[in-house]
Design brief:
This protein has 21 helices and nine strands. With 585 residues, the chain is an alpha/beta fold. The protein folds into four domains: 3-29 and 39-95, no CATH class; 106-228, no CATH class; 238-324 and 439-584, Rossmann fold (3-Layer(aba) Sandwich); 329-415, no CATH class. The two termini are 45 Å apart. The structure holds a DNA duplex (18 and 18 nucleotides).
Amino acid sequence: MAGDNCGVEVDNIDWDTEDELEIESIPLASHASLTFPSVEANMASSSAGPSNSKIVDHFIGMGFSAKMVMKAIEENGEENTNSILETLLTLSALENSPPKQQHVDTDESFSEYEGSFLDDFTDLDSDSENEGPAKPVSDVDNKLIFLVDMGYSEDEANAAIERCGAHSSIAELTDFISAAQISKAADVLLGDLPDRPKPKNLDGCSKLKKRRHYDYEAWKKKKPKCFDDDDETIRLPNPMLGFGVPNELCPTVQRKLPEAAIGPPYFYYENVALAPKGVWNTISRFLYDVEPEFVDSKHFCAAARKRGYVHNLPIHNRFPLLPMPPHTIHEAFPLTRKWWPSWDTRTQLNCLQTCIGSARLTDRIRKALEDYDSERDPPLTVQKFILDQCRKWNLVWVGKNKVAPLEPDEVEMLLGFPKNHTRGGGISRTDRYKSLGNSFQVDTVAYHLSVLKDMFPGGINLLSLFSGIGGAEVALHRLGIPLKNVVSVDISEVNRNIVRSWWEQTNQKGTLIDLADVQELDADRLQYYMNLFGGFDLVVGGSPCNNLTGSNRYTRDGLEGKESILFYDYFRILDLVKCIATKTE
DNA sequence: CGGATAATGAGCGGTAAA
DNA sequence: TTTACCGCTCATTATCCG
């Protein structure tokens, strides 16, 4: 290991954004009693060990007082930057603890909005002509339906309405439910704490309320269409080229983003294209009515990957990563050509998934072929059986009568990751396949993100949700867009290790903070990071697809499924970032 | 050696679109 | 009609650890 190359000179860390930024008091009081999740700042120490003053400078550069920094280093030792940062966060939370704020109920702007909200509601009911005999749908019912539509369970929604009152706004109700969920999680983790944080609103951020209000209004207006008119359902394009792919003649696409979608920040959301009906309508509706861009990665590499992307990035002057990866199986795996039968007409692979074909299957295929004269093609029925299985499991020909699933490093290459990106460090083969199968295709994502290069020559601050093995980070890095500060969230420790290891190996100059759970990212935490970094330039996320994908035979429950419901956390967090950015303007 | 834990493997339909 | 699909569960096998 080349220890010299792994060190990041703390002095070189680019903190220039801070000069223009006033570090505000961060209201973190409610967290003081809770254990912080693993927060790790990357100040990779060189093998010689950092000098104490460098560490001190670094943390002072982050906006902490010298006194606090010294205390934190004293408590944790200078080696353990992770613990130092945790201590600093806790200390700053205690020191900056603001006087108890009034609940937003008493917020004037909020009360005004409440009034208009009810007015709108009445108007809408009287206006609706195409719904036949007007069924009296109560305010409560509508709020209930909306909350369920947002992904909350009926029980949660009912409980919230009961607790907060029938006239509570959607904002209050969602706050209540979130708080209930958080405390439920805290109960599980920490036992029942008497001093658990109470439901909290984002004080002084009435824009958020308004936005939620807008969402609710938009939802109400669109609801009849979605139910009555199938033509409104988003359909997938064929061919799946999105707003254009390299080397394909595409009609010059123009698009006009809805006002609410325009950044900052830029955002980029991804999920499987072939989701159950209506899912993409919901996703698009929540993400400010931006039309999804559906792209199949077979136009970028040798494997298919049909995905939808909702983003507010410019779509002109994109450029691909170079060198362009091979587009056919033979180009990608030249050694397979020798064994490839003429009747296997595949030129590209299907979607790379999390599971691979079994040894028994490849054995069956070998035996099926050995029954026949190798000079001649097997019967059509046998060909069909083998081809079906090869397509289903992405098998390639590696020897006489021998097919095999791809090796993990081959999948890495197809997806645009560096070789051995997911290898070693305690990661099992199964984990590698799983993490890779859940990842972005880097060339595809990079093509979309390439427009950022000219816009941010000094680099970007990135909020990466559901980062997985860091597809977005790798894409930006390969584009030559410097990563200044990255907050990366992923539930899997294996994945976080992969990203951190990549971060250190590629000598990143910025700071990487990794968190485990998107549900821990609340307004206070976000505001804290945004103050520290000067806001996020880009919010990327591909939320879990396992309840959406056709591969799932057991729990394909749609966007409300156990994991896929986390889409609403992407929306929640993006909305908070937009809100805080607007407020700080 | 033996119990605990981790990794692997086999089998599992249905939806939506072309 | 055919085709494709960022998966899940549970039994079995492999590995770890005292």
